[in-house]
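Request: Could I get any protein with tokenized structure?
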Amino acid sequence: MRLAGPAALLLLAAAAAAQSPMPYQKPDAAAAPAAAPPAASTETVTASSSTAPTDEVAGHGFKVGGTAPKAKLSRPMHAVIHKEAADWEPLALRVGGVPGSAENAVALKVVKVKGRMKGENTKARSAARLHKGAKDSRWLAISLYPKALERKRTHLELRFRIFEGFVEEVQAAAVTVTDRRRPPSAKLLDSYDLREEGIEYQEERPGSGQFVVAELDPRPTAAAANSGRLEKAEFADKDLGFVNLSWSVKGVRAPGK
């Protein structure tokens, strides 16, 4: 059946409208319900708190807000001192003290008075020499020449036996020249030098005491630095008694020089 005129136009418009989609309408945001956030479980909270950085981690090993640890004191040690040397007898040996802070000084006849240690203080000259020992060992001899003992021709000698880079033995001695045929020498001779030159002497060793070494360098060079102290060295000689001393020597003389 053929339609013409206005009726046919109305039927065509209706068919086209039925085939074309409706225009898109944006939903009303206010009308849409808000999505509820997922509830945190107990397990999630626990795991989060256990992995949180602690003060130590956050501070890279230092407690945040605390006092930073003191820097470790560096001591020039060119020979190893055994830990068990702190228990050696009669003379103990340990590392300690501040490098460069010691001086050449001796306190003789030290006694305890009203809780304080007092003695006869005297300054001293010093020298360090390296001498050959048994087999491949070497003796580092540090000598102190107290002014108060000059007339007695006595000096104090500290000896360290070095073997393969380790301190294997220590000695202390009061060395007195007994050869009256020889006038006092202007040179600072130690017991090894006296023996080599045929000069008679005698020595006394303390019955107890403790070495505290801040610098140790047995190498025979002008730059070698040695410093430390000897505490409570007990001598039988009444002119010595208990002795406290300290040394600071720059340079070590080589054997045979």
About this structure: Residues 6-19 form the longest helix (14 residues). The two ends are 141 Å apart (CA to CA). Helices lie at 6-19, 42-50, 55-58, 191-196.
